[in-house]
Amino acid sequence: MNTNAPAPVRAVIADDERLMREQLRARLAEVWPELEVVAEARNGLEAVELVEQHRPDVVFLDIRMPGLTGVDAARRIAQLAPAEGGDEDELLPEIVFITAYDQYAVEAFEQGVVDYVLKPAERERLQLTVERLRRRLAARRGEGEEAPAAANMQQLLHKLAAQLNPAAAPRYLEWIQAGVGSAIQMIPVQEVLFFVSDEKYTRVQTAQVEALIRKPIKELVDELDPRQFWQIHRSTLVNVNTISGVTRDFRGRQIVSVRGSPQKLEVSRSYAGLFKGM
């Protein structure tokens, strides 16, 4: 037995139509026979739960599902905590949207952050997606390679969510109500250098003030303008306008410096593509 054989690639499929799930599974078996489909979800909420349970390498998400769209499910998946006992730097799964509406996924496809397949899944088009996924997964597992998947994931998912529901365009936070000592202070969002979370609190750092709030990063991601605040780690958001430089430490990890604070912020592998070429 070859003990050095790579681990099998595992996938979750999510679509509210049973026939579509069966058709996609059958097509995948044809073009990617070694792929292991570990679970199928009937809606977005179930998809998030199954991804958290199984930690697959790839998730195929119908872009329109009841309760939670595929885009919203992808946003929640991107914020899942690492598996119990797992690495804090655990990579996010690759996302493939399944859609009957070509215009919703063109931007995602062109940016290379996620891929998409039109319904019904045609063998030839699915083969192209599989080839891209194989290359991306091989890059993840390669020595010293950076994962490309999450570089602009949140920014892209915000845009796709607005396309799906333009009437619900987000209104981003302008003020943060935070505890400073025994007082409550209103902090303008534009003055925040970065947010860093631990198990219970999120630290809000400005050039003058350090404050605490109970809102976790996964909620702040949806409430802050993604053009201004970039997620660089599961526990860190940084104001892109305050970034003064990006260096590498002795491990080869990217480290962000911000104007107005001596603290250095580590970039996790999933978000290393934000600073491609560094």
Automatic annotation (TrEMBL):
It comes from the Bacteria. Residues 10-134 form the Response regulatory domain. Pfam families: LytTR, Response_reg. The keyword Phosphoprotein applies. The modification 4-aspartylphosphate is found at D62. Gene3D superfamilies: 3.40.50.2300, LytTr DNA-binding domain (2.40.50.1020). Keywords: DNA-binding, Phosphoprotein. This is DNA-binding response regulator. It comes from Rubrivivax gelatinosus (Rhodocyclus gelatinosus).
